[in-house]
Each structure stands twice: as C-alpha cells, then as structure tokens.
Amino acid sequence: MADRRTIETAPLPTRSGGRAPRARTSAADIAFSISRAISEHRLQPGAKLIERSIAEMFGVSRTIVREALIQLGRDGLVVLKPGSGAYVSTPSIAEAQQLFAVRRMLETEIMRALVPIARPLHLRRLRAHVREEQAAIRRGDVAARTRLLADFHVEIARCLGNKVLEGLLFTIVTRSSLILLVYQTTHAARHSCDEHTHIIEAIAGGDVDAAVGEMLDHLRNVEQGVLLDARAPSIDLQEALLGRGARPAKAQARLGGEAK
Ligand SMILES: [Zn+2]
Fold this sequence. Notes:
Mean pLDDT: 79
CATH topology of the largest domain: Four Helix Bundle (Hemerythrin (Met), subunit A)
Bound molecules: zinc ion
Helix content: 55-70%
Strand content: under 5%
CATH class of the largest domain: Mainly Alpha
CATH architecture of the largest domain: Up-down Bundle
Structural class: mainly alpha
Shape: elongated
Distance between the termini: 20 Å
Low-confidence stretches: 1-22, 247-260
Order of helices and strands: HEHHEEHHHHHHHH
Strand order of the largest sheet: 1-3-2
Number of strands: 3
C-alpha cells in the first residue's frame, strides 16, 4: 500500500528501503523517487527529465539532481544525451519479446535437468531467496525487488553447477530485468514472487512436467504483463514526480516536514 502513495504525501524512502534519516533531500533520494515514478508508470520511457525543473520541485541544487541522473544512467534507467539532457530509457518491446522467447527455451530445459537431481540444499537456497524477494517487495524497494526477482532465475541455473549456462542466463535475465524495472507494477512483482514459490514446490515434488509448466506459465505471465503495461498513457513530469495538481513549494514543505 505504501508505494501507491504519491511522492507528495509519502515520506521519502532511501534506495535501501529505510526512511530518510535527515531533513535534506539527497541525490539517492531523488534517484529513488524517479525510479519509483518510472516503475509505477508515472514517468514513461522516453520522458525528458529536466534538471532545472526537478531541482525546483525538490528544492535542491542542480548538482544534486545531476548526481541523481548520473546514478540512474549507471542503472540503465535513464539515458544521458550530451547537449540534449536526460531521458527515461526506452527498452523496445520487440527486444523484450525476443528475450522472453530465449528464456522459455533455456529455462524449460533447466527445469528438465534440475528436477531429477534437486537436493534439499538447493530447495533451501531457493526458498531463502524468495524470502528476500518478499522483504524487498514489502519495503517498496523497486530496484532491489527487480534485481532479486531476476536473480531467482540465475539461482536456479546455479543449482546445476554449469558456469556457462549460469553466465548466459545472467546476461539474458539482466537485460529483461531493465524492461521489468521500467514496466513492472508492484502488483505484478508480488504475483511473480508467488509464482517463484510454485516453481520451487514443483521442483520439490519431483514432477518434471509440473515444474516445466509452472516455469512456462510464469514467463508467459511476466511477458504479458510487460506488453500490456507498455501501452499505458504518458503524463506530465511535475504530475509524475509530485502528484496531480501539486505545487512544488508546498510539496517540498511536506517532504521536508516528513523527513525524519
Ligand atoms: Zn521470475
């Protein structure tokens, strides 16, 4: 629920999930607010992030905003174009479809190979991983939840002890996780996490067909969610970051007042 609130009314969380410990807004706070606005579809791929406007909205210097945009650029969420400015990254839908097609091929074969040899140690490791996903979802940490949801699939490949396969999967899953970071909603993230539990239980049950079926259902659901969400309409920068009808100064006063 907490992450459905707008930036205007919510205390600014830090990227690691805790409440902002001081009154001043840092570059990390701004980067977190922007990444949350992107992941919640309040900012669309391709949207221009105007340094001066963001600095005014949050009542900080342009240097701090620039630092936040550079950080987002490193995460692949923002593209910095020299002489033009910063834009929300635009992963293509065609690329997403190709990535998911490859994942279906690889990950169904991984299930066929893993189910007959899965040991209690593997299941314990996978269940512990899902608990970390649940914690990140609960604290509204979009970057951590996206990384953990993606890592689950690499963790499964790791159980097979094949380094080539693990590396290949890591690359493909990381590329698709950027697309998820941009398009996946909190609701969809929770759903994905539940499906990870179903996959683990199918592996534990020793039924190859059931495990392959759970994995295929999961990948199909994630892909369909991305394709549907990618058609959402775009909105204004100020409205995206501060909420509908918000006045920058008023919002800043609230942010300052609520930061504890
Ligand atoms: Zn998954």
